[in-house]
Amino acid sequence: MERYDVIVCGAGFAGVAAATEAGRLGCRVLVVEEEGYPGGSMTACGTGPMMTFHAGKKQVIRGITDELIQRLVKKTCLQGTRKI
Question: pTM of this prediction?
């Protein structure tokens, strides 16, 4: 029988971020997803846009999501960061 420190129910945006951080902290992680693919409603239903990471001019969201954005900016993959 497998044993896990953390079980994450749902592989949507928040579930993937939670599982990633738990893994980085050294936890044995199991992600359980009903649909069989990650992405949650953003993938299944095409919902969007995601909410901003800011409240006015102050950035209020940090952590893994901010790390992802900073990596994309560094690679110039975000809209508006390079001319297509």
Answer: 0.71
Overall domain count for the chain: 2
Per-residue tokens: 45: 């239903």
User: Same domain, yes or no, for 46 and 60?
Assistant: no
Q: Has residue 78 got a pLDDT over 70?
A: no
Q: How confident is the model at residue 80 (pLDDT cuts 50, 70, 90)?
A: low
Domain shared by 59 and 23, yes or no? no
Secondary structure, 3-state, the chain: CCCCCEEEECCCHHHHHHHHHHHHCCCCEEEECCCCCCCHHHHHCCCCCCCCCEECCEECCCHHHHHHHHHHHHCCCCCCCCCC
